[in-house]
């Protein structure tokens, strides 16, 4: 074996190593063609791929002497039409050498296309005429996957000798090119499988998010919008020149990992009972028990009257009015929007002391113990037990995501997704982590989760807040140690909020925002 051949074999090995390491498909395609040209001393070449099993698409076109570089990661795209593998008649398209090789899976080595009779070279001849070129020798090789299905075609033109003279492709060059084609097929197939798995997992993540959003009208499109804000803020932080983020940069893999976490951040809500997720009043379980209290008060009103005879109509109306007013006040408390005062607590004790007689003749309190405890909820509609169940969705998200065998590039999905309810002061949940214990991506998700909920205009239980109102509340939360101060300042300074608002908020919500009026905001 001569030294030149050994050198080419070593070069082929190095090409194989480089191809297996390349993760960017356009770069990989270009690298395959360039390596093939180098190994065979070909002046030009084309790399095709089969798309939809019926069309042969141009991926990369290169010609050294003409300075042509199209497709791949070159700046100029390819405008040539794809070659059909099936004719309008339904027959296989065996007319061009590239389509023949794609269909038959055979290598074709031609010394001079101008003397070849078996194929239609009108495309090559038109190319020659347009660029004043002379295509002569041509080597066309199929790229086959593990199942021996043709996935593409490698075509090389005009092999040259040491003096630059065009010569036929030798058996040695053909063998090297076929070896390279085999390595290229493996690299392309692996990259295709990786991309398909990535697309599948991405679609699965979005399906889970969509299922959570559809589980309850009270979450609107929360799981679909949190990833949007997350990625906007992450890109702003990664691109920022501010001293706060001088050591923080994210690459394509990091962005995909964070976006995946954002799509799955509320997956634990799949285990949260609907009556807790949708609890819009204090007495709501499967239904709102305020109606039971209304029925009891109606019953009490008439029970207090039947003890008397010949009751004037005015007394009946007065009794009805008294208990209806009691019901209205209980109804207001039940909504959970008012600030619960001592007067409200005293009022509920008075109501509970009232009794009514059942059909069986037993005396029962107007409010059951559970109803009394729920109506005494000081803020919101969830009692302590229900709030624990609701907050447990974050721990459940971590548990569910920890079960998945994430690859190395997605190892931090569980950490990012599970940390969106933690606080910078360590008073969050589920693990009471402090700012120092939380990564920047996890802190980003915390802001995204809160801002989406504040600004959402599709919740049936609340009126949509304006942009300035949402930012003002977010500012108070920064001051209270709830969210990361540096990311909050970046969110305002770079107007990430406005980019999101223009795409997802209603025009009525987008009001004038004065940065000087946002609590806790620091410009520098």
Task: Write up what this structure looks like.
It is a single chain. With 524 residues, this protein is α+β, with helices and mostly antiparallel strands. It has helices spanning 3-21, 25-40, 97-104, 122-131, 171-215, 222-239, 252-264, 274-277, 290-306, 313-335, 342-353, 369-375, 384-403, 413-418, 440-455, 467-479, 485-493, 496-504, and strands spanning 42-51, 55-63, 68-71, 83-84, 108-110, 138-144, 150-160, 166-167, 355-357, 363-365. It has three domains: 3-194, GAF domain (Beta-Lactamase), CATH 3.30.450; 216-272 and 385-517, Hypothetical protein af1432; 290-380. The chain is 51% helix and 10% strand. Strands 1, 2, 3, 4, 5, 6, 7 and 8 form an eight-stranded antiparallel sheet that branches. Helix 1 runs parallel beside helix 5 (171-215), helix 6 (222-239) packs antiparallel against helix 7 (252-264) and helix 9 runs antiparallel to helix 10 (313-335). The chain is elongated and about 120 Å long.
């Amino acid at each position: 074996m001569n030294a030149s051949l050994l050198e080419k074999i070593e070069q082929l090995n190095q090409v194989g190593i480089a191809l297996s390491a390349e993760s960017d498909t356009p770069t990989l395609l270009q690298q395959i063609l360039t390596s093939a040209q180098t190994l065979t001393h070909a002046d030009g070449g084309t790399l095709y791929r089969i798309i939809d099993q019926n069309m042969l698409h141009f991926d990369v076109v290169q010609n050294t002497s003409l300075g042509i570089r199209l497709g791949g990661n070159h700046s100029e795209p390819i405008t040539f039409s794809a070659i059909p593998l099936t004719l309008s008649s339904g027959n296989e398209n065996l007319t061009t050498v590239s389509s023949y090789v794609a269909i038959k899976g055979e290598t074709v080595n031609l010394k001079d296309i101008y003397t070849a009779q078996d194929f239609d070279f009108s495309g090559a001849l038109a190319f020659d005429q347009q660029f004043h070129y002379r295509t002569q020798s041509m080597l066309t090789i199929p790229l086959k996957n593990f199942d021996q299905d043709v996935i593409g075609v490698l075509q090389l033109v005009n092999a040259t000798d040491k003096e630059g003279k065009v010569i036929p492709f030798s058996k040695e060059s053909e063998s090297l090119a076929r070896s390279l084609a085999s390595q290229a097929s493996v690299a392309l197939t692996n990259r295709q499988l990786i991309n398909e798995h990535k697309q599948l997992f991405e679609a699965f993540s979005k399906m889970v998010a969509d299922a959570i959003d559809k589980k309850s009208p009270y979450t609107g499109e929360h799981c679909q919008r949190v990833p949007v804000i997350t990625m906007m803020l992450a890109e702003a932080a990664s691109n920022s020149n501010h001293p706060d983020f001088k050591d923080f940069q994210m690459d394509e893999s990091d962005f995909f990992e964070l976006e995946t976490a954002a799509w799955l951040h509320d997956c634990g809500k799949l285990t949260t009972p609907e009556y807790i997720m949708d609890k819009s009043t204090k007495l709501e379980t499967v239904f709102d028990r305020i109606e039971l209290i209304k029925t009891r008060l109606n019953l009490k009103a008439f029970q207090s009257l039947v003890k008397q005879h010949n009751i004037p109509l005015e007394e009946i109306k007065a009794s009805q009015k008294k208990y209806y007013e009691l019901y209205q006040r209980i109804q207001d408390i039940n909504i959970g929007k008012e600030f619960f005062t001592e007067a409200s607590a005293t009022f509920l004790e008075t109501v509970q002391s009232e009794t009514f007689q059942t059909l069986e003749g037993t005396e029962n309190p107007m409010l059951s113990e559970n109803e009394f405890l729920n109506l005494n909820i000081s803020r919101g509609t969830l009692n302590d037990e229900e709030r624990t169940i609701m907050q447990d969705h974050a721990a459940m998200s971590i548990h569910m995501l920890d079960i998945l065998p994430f690859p190395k590039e997605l190892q931090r999905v569980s950490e990012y997704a599970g940390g969106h309810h933690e606080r910078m002061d360590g008073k969050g949940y589920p693990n009471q982590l402090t700012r120092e214990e939380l990564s920047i991506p996890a802190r980003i998700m915390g802001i995204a989760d809160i801002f989406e909920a504040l600004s959402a205009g599709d919740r049936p239980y609340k009126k949509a807040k304006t942009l300035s109102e949402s930012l003002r509340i977010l500012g108070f939360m920064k001051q209270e140690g709830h969210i990361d101060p540096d990311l909050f300042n970046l969110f305002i300074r770079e107007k990430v909020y406005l980019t999101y608002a223009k795409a997802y908020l209603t025009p009525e919500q987008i009001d004038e925002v004065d940065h000087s009026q946002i609590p806790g905001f620091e410009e520098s």
